Amino acid sequence: MLQPKRTKYRKPFRVSYEGKAKRGTTIEFGRYAIQAQTAGWVDARQIESARKAIVRHMKRGGKIWIRIFPHNALTKKPLEVRMGKGKGSVDRYVAVVKPKMILFEVDFHNEADALEALRLGQHKLPIICKVVKKDDLNG
Predict the structure, then answer these.
(1) How much is the average pLDDT of 85-97?
(2) How many angstroms separate the Cα of 95 from the Cα of each of 16, 19, 21, 98?
(3) Count of CB atoms within 10 A of residue 92's CB?
């Protein structure tokens, strides 16, 4: 699972995901990609699950690029704990995703298989996405 190698000495604040993406909106490496249509947090487990679904359908052929990384730690207090006594421990790491952001890119020799693999991968993500081609997106 993806997570930062090193973190600082304090727990971070929650990060907002409002607004549109300023960068990461074009296909840079592959020919096909998953593009976010709504904003949200994508968990490290969800990223790994989508990656596995894509790789399995392509039968470990082609190339895949993951364009998001879960930098932000979310904390959670244990169940049935009273209020106060500080902030909870780190529960999971999330990536902040904004609309029009490219999440995964794929380069595969068969277009139909590549699009089907990305379709299967986008079902593992908690936000609304669509599959795009480099020709359509970058013009």
Answers:
(1) 93
(2) 11, 15, 13, 10
(3) 17
